[in-house]
Amino acid sequence: MLNEIRQILVRVGNLATPAESLAEEADLYDAGLTSFASVQLMLALEEVFDIEFPEHMLTRRTFASIGAIARSIGELTPHEA
Amino acid sequence: MAAVEQLTPESTVQRMRRVAEIAARHAGEVDRDARFPRETVNALKQNRLLGLAVPAKLGGEDTGIAEIADLCGMLGQACASSAMVFAMHQIKLQSLVSHGLTAEWHRNFAREVAARQLLLASSTTEAGIGGDLRNSICAVEVDGERFALVKDAPVISYGSEADAILATARRAPDAPSGDQVLVVLRAGQDFTLEQTNGWDTLGMRGTCSQGFKLSAQGHVDQIIPKPFSEIAAQSMLATSHIFWSSLWFGIAADAMARAQAFVRAAAKRQPGNLPPGALRLAEATAKLNDMKSTVKTGISRYETARKSENELSSIGFAVAMNNLKVSASTMAAEIIQLALLITGISGYKNDTPYSVGRHLRDALSAMVMISNDRILANTSNLLLVSRFDTSLLG
Fold first, then answer.
1. pLDDT digits (tens, 9 = 90+) for B224-263
2. What single DSSP character describes residue A42?
3. pTM exceeding 0.80
4. Domains and CATH numbers, chain A
5. Chain B hits for A32, Cβ within 8 Å
6. Each residue of B17-62: pLDDT tens digit?
7. What are phi and psi of B141, to 5 degrees?
8. Is B343 inside any structural domain?
9. Residues 38 to 57 of A: which have CB under 8 A from any B CB?
10. What angle do CA B389, B392, B393 make, to 5 degrees?
11. Strand-pair category, B146-157 with B141-143
């Protein structure tokens, strides 16, 4: 899952730091994730993992790092987590 | 009796009423000459209204958002430029007290703001970033315990009148444009300003939002530890939209008061007849009430969200604050135009008790002060994932 998230970040994240070299818990906003790109990231995650983020998960913290994203997706797909 | 009264501290509203009287007296001249409303600011200092948001244990009054918003509205009824200076100061103070009090230097500075009633200004926009305050070109350059910063700021409202400027910059020369910090710079010791352009505008002429080249240096402790991205998302954008909307409400409310006075005077001249403007007055009053509800809803949304950092950084909250700004700015101009329609030539002229020209010019700043189109573009992006809240309870 982490690799898939990384690939999505490469595609839509538009980061200043390359997503390939980011640590699992590195702050994506510090790496240059903008408000616009974070929405594109959410849409791509919903598409690839076939999920829908509920309103209460649409916060900065949910998408703060690759690890945080993986944990959020895990919460939405419990049997795969 | 008199002794008892002296023991009761004056409310903020009583103190602001005094300031507003002074502001109203000079509002015409401030507007005409595009000069800083120094009488208002001196009165704000004398009435100790600049340190309200500082915690009581640091010498402030722990005043909440709703009460400060109301004070912005009161001053907005008297002089919009004065109210905007007051609001911008309060926005910076919210950034400081909400995010800066973990560090000793900033606690001492907050104490000084309350004790000496320091006026805070803001330097966020920068030449070359296209108006997006979440990006900086300039960077803080740290050398040991000192830092240096040079910023080409197309606008620093009342920059040359402020006692301190809170400025954004990239964290370091090699940091990405969005990795910003907020630094506190004190007038007279930390920075110099070189004016680069003027402020001859349609309205809000007294904010003196000239352009400056800001050259600063200071101790690294003056840099607020919390990233500016979080300060912006969790307090600055929200308090900006709330305090601005409140003062725009004040401008609209005063224009409506003039329209009502005009209709009442007409009714007294012709007893038994409903004056022609009366129907429009009813329509405009409903709109003013809508605007008040919009602003109050925004305030209570922020007060609820403040209890949780997660809620403050949620997309739903960002959408709500964006909507507040776009709605309030649009409504203010609409209401004042109705006031103009009601007051007619008397309202259009600049020298009658019913003049609303200054109100209209001041309120038109609202839609370009962070352009409504920019905000709508931001909201439309957020709405690709966020859903509309259909509950009437939340």
1. 999 998 899 889 999 999 999 999 999 999 999 999 999 9
2. H
3. yes
4. 2-16+29-76 (1.10.1200.10)
5. 176-179
6. 999 999 999 999 999 999 999 999 999 999 999 999 999 999 999 9
7. -110, 110
8. yes
9. 39, 42-43, 46, 53, 55-56
10. 100
11. antiparallel
